[in-house]
Amino acid sequence: QVQLVESGGGSVQAGGSLRLSCAYSGFTDSSYAMAWFRQAPGKEREGLIGINSARSTALSDSVKGRFTVSKDNAKNTLYLQMNSLKPEDTAMYYCAANDWVARQFLLAAPRYDYWGQGTRVTVSS
Predict the structure, then answer these.
(1) How far apart are the first and last CA of the chain?
(2) Under 8 Å CB-to-CB from 65, ≥6 apart: which residues?
(3) CA 74 from chain center: how many Å?
(4) Distances (CA, A) of 34 to 43, 88, 125
(5) From first to last of its 125 residues, what are the pLDDT tens digits of the chain?
(6) Which residues contact 77 (CB under 8 A, 6 or more apart)?
(7) Closest CA to 111 of 70, 52, 54
(8) Cα separation of 36 and 50, whole Å?
(9) What angle do CA 67, 5, 32 make, to 5 degrees?
(10) What's the CA gap between 64 and 78, in Å, rounded?
(11) Residue 122 · residue 12 · CB < 8 Å
(12) CB 100 within 8 A of CB 53
């Protein structure tokens, strides 16, 4: 059974940094695509950054140069490092996984079957 658990959210001032974690289980690291999404109140879920089993990646222009993704295979954890945070980054952040997602769809929410419960990030000006 695939499980995803996010943590690391919180409140930070504009310009600050946060690192989100997604602890995963139920699949091998190399076989699944994983991605980070976010959803602000009243807005659609937005794909931020994704990586698939072929090591292809996708990155949203809205976070390019500020957010990066990494994995600790020994800990079965995916990280999202967020720097230079802006008030518009305020949202609920979600980790997602699926057994295969082609590169062109890595930031498309419908392509993912498995989701965590989310962790809230609030950036104040």
Answers:
(1) 41
(2) none
(3) 19
(4) 22, 23, 31
(5) 999 999 999 999 999 999 999 999 998 767 899 999 999 999 999 999 999 988 889 999 999 999 999 988 889 999 999 999 999 999 999 999 999 999 999 999 999 999 999 999 999 99
(6) 21, 22, 23, 24, 71
(7) 52
(8) 6
(9) 70
(10) 18
(11) yes
(12) yes
Q: Which two tokens stand for residue 104?
A: 């062109």
Q: Which helix (H) or strand (E) holds 121?
A: strand 119-124
* Distance in angstroms (rounded) separating the CA atoms of residues 27 and 121: 27
Q: Which pLDDT score, from 0 to 100, does residue 30 have?
A: 72
Task: For residue 20, give both structure tokens.
Answer: 């989100």
Largest pairwise CA distance in the chain: 41
The owner of tokens 């990155």 is 59
**Side chain identity at 23, as an amino acid letter?**
A
